[in-house]
Amino acid sequence: MINPLSSSTDAGAQLTPISGVARKGRRTKELIKRLRPGDIAVIDHSDIDPIAASNIVDARVAAVIDCSPPITGKYPNRGPLMLVSAGIPLYKLLDAAVFEEIVDSKRLSVDAHGNVMQLDRRHLAAVEQWTKARITLEMDVARVNLGHALEEFSANTLSYVREEKHLLIDPIDAPPLTGVRSLNRRHVVVVVRGEGYKEDLQSIRSYIRDVRPILIGVDGGADVLIENGLRPDIILGDMDSVSDGALTCGAKVVVHAYASDKRAPGLVRVDALGVESELFPVSGTSEDAAMLLAYEKGARLIVAVGTHSNLEDFLDKGRAGMASTFLVRLKVGSRLVDARGVSQLHRRSATYGEVAGLLFSAGAVLAALISQSPLAQSFISFFRAWLRLRFH
Question: Which residue, of 24, 60, 61, 359, has the fewest CB within 10 Å?
Answer without folding.
Answer: 359
